[in-house]
Design goal:
By secondary structure, the protein is of the alpha+beta class. It has six helices and 19 strands. The chain has two domains: 3-61 and 145-327, QueA-like (3-Layer(aba) Sandwich), CATH 3.40.1780.10; 65-135, QueA-like (Thrombin, subunit H, Beta Barrel). It is 16% helix and 29% strand. Helix 5 packs across helix 6 (300-312).
Length: 329
């Protein structure tokens, strides 16, 4: 298989540029082997039963986008990826000849770019952890040209800060929907996977089998593992990040509590380790590893048929777009 096998045409006007006013008013396409249906996201409650377990990713996006200037005045755009010391951050940098260059953010905050082991890092003079809200911006994907508050680019259940992008399938949930699910007897089980650049980097290898994912931190607690392993009903995952974390620590049909990093790349031919009833996800970019994952879940032919139906009905696509519920038979 090559990346072109997962390509499709999307009119630019269908790329959602801002979030919908009410999270649960987004549209929802229900895809199963037998039919495709069109609903509102608030209708998703009807598809769960008592004893079902819904796994959500409780990671929280931080204001990782920084804009500074070189001492010569040129603008430098920086995306913080992860903190690897009190003053040091791994980062992605837009600009040339920046190694050992001083970057100024304001009169009190500046740092120096260094390249180590082919990765860029920025070393600050002071710990900026509690200052990011002042100098950082919401790290929206490049296809979104508008601004959005960091709170709207986070799920209502986000707790553990560390992502540079939202687990977007969860953006549609409201506290009201979660409350109704719990009242129905559905178990909400949180995991954490901090979304890094590896999730979105393009597949450049001629064959997708040659692509390597960058490692991302994840953690699944004993409590969540017990909820999943002892469930009385079916298992659902909210988002590709949740399902990658689950598959990274599944053994013999059960979840082993684990904290670490995963580079798991799921593409057609992959054998699932757990028995999932459904996956909630957004619409993904052409040729992306995320699209390859959802094609693995329900089959490429059916997924592309659903994408074509969504395009015809003018669904909103990508991070701030509408949602899909993929149901196994």
């Amino acid at each position: 298989m090559n990346p072109g096998d997962f390509d499709y045409f999307l009119p630019k006007e269908l790329i959602a540029q801002k979030p919908i006013t009410k999270r649960d008013e987004s549209r929802l396409i229900i895809v199963s082997e037998n039919k495709i249906q069109h609903k509102k996201f608030r209708n998703i409650i009807d598809y769960f039963s008592k004893g079902d377990v819904v796994v959500v990713n409780d990671t929280k996006v931080f204001p990782a986008k920084l804009i500074g200037k070189k001492e010569t005045g040129g603008t430098v755009r920086i995306l913080l990826v992860r903190q690897n010391g009190r003053l040091s951050w791994e980062c992605m940098v837009q600009g040339k000849n920046l190694n050992n260059k001083k970057i100024i953010f304001n009169s009190k905050i500046h740092g120096t770019i260094i390249n180590k082991n082919n990765k860029n890092h920025i070393i600050f003079r002071k710990n900026i952890g509690n200052l990011l809200d002042k100098i950082g911006k919401t790290p929206l994907p490049p296809y979104i040209k508008s601004d959005a508050r960091i709170g709207r680019y986070n799920t209502v259940y986000s707790i553990n800060e560390g992502s540079i992008a939202a687990p977007t399938a969860g953006l549609h949930f409201t506290k009201k929907i979660l409350g109704k699910l719990r009242k129905k007897g559905v178990v909400i089980a949180p995991i954490t996977l901090h979304v890094g650049p590896g999730t979105f980097l393009p597949v450049k290898s001629e064959n997708i089998e040659g692509h390597r994912m960058h490692p991302e931190f994840f953690s699944i607690s004993r409590q969540t593992a017990d909820k999943i392993n002892n469930r009385k009903g079916r298992l659902f995952a909210v988002g590709t990040t949740s399902i990658r974390a689950l598959e990274s620590c599944a053994e013999n049909g059960n979840i082993i509590p684990k904290t670490g990093e995963t580079s798991l790349f799921i593409y057609p031919g992959y054998k699932w380790k757990l028995n999932y009833a459904g996956l909630i996800t957004n619409f993904h970019l052409p040729k992306s590893t995320l699209l390859m994952l959802v094609c693995t879940f329900l089959g490429k032919e059916l997924i592309f048929r659903a994408y074509n139906a969504a395009i015809r009905k003018k669904y909103r696509f990508y991070s701030f777009g509408d949602a899909m519920l993929l149901l196994k038979s």
